[in-house]
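Run log // design_07
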């Protein structure tokens, strides 16, 4: 269990039970008492108010009004929330949109500057549009949950991505590409990448990608992705936000349509 997962389990356990002993928490997370004590100290540093009551019947208690001072959301997690809202908008229906916008805006404001920069770079790779009604989606499958974390490293550090890909005829191949953009045409999601073996851009349906692996140390240069009417329909959000007031929601709402297939 990772440190972050342990922290989440400990907080949930304290919120659920009210009081818990160090020993009980250690058994729950599968770690030593000393590790749990270090986790408690780290959680206190993050802003959680955790009281300690010694003696029989005592234990650790989490203040229900405890406010976490440090944002713990990863860039990939915030990005997943933002693109989910964007994809729903592109599909033409987003109930309670004002509440979604307000919630995401609050999350964005809690991010430290370095995460905001990373989020901006990921958003710059995102294109959202509408799928052609002629597109067959009957064979659509689920997307590998490891794909988005792999994208975070590959896009932000410009590293090659290796994965297995199943084409429309069910044939599987191992591919190594340079990730350049993400194209969301609900309900289909695509990775747009430069394929060095073919010396051209390729669109990979994300539900056909499996076992993604970032190749550390193998970098590539950013290329201009030739989105146009001959490639596929898409919408590209305008980058009209300033360095000081970055708002991913505004950026995604201000999308412009361009082209049909």
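design_07 sequence
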């Amino acid at each position: 269990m990772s440190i972050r997962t342990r922290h989440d389990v400990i907080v949930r356990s304290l919120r659920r039970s009210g009081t818990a002993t160090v020993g009980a928490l250690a058994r729950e997370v599968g770690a030593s008492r000393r590790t749990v004590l270090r986790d408690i100290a780290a959680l206190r540093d993050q802003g959680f108010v955790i009281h300690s009551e010694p003696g029989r019947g005592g234990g650790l208690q989490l203040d229900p009004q405890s406010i976490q001072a440090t944002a713990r959301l990863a860039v990939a997690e915030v990005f997943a929330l933002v693109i989910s809202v964007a994809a729903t908008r592109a599909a033409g229906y987003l109930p309670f949109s004002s509440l979604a916008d307000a919630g995401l805006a609050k999350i964005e404001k809690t991010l430290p500057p370095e995460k905001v920069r990373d989020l901006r770079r990921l958003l710059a790779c995102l294109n959202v549009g509408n799928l052609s009604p002629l597109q067959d989606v009957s064979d659509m499958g689920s997307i590998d949950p490891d794909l988005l974390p792999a994208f975070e490293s590959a896009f932000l550090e410009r590293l090659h991505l290796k994965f297995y890909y199943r084409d429309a005829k069910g044939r599987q191949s191992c591919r190594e590409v340079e990730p350049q953009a993400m194209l969301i045409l609900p309900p289909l999601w695509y990775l747009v990448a430069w394929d060095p073996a073919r010396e051209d851009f390729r669109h990979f349906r994300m539900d056909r990608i499996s076992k993604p692996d970032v190749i550390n140390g193998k970098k590539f240069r950013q290329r201009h992705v030739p989105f146009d009417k001959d490639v596929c329909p898409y919408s590209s959000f305008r980058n009209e936000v300033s360095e000081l007031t970055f708002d991913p929601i505004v950026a995604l709402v201000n999308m412009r349509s361009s082209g049909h297939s």
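Confidence is low (pLDDT under 50) at residues 229-261.
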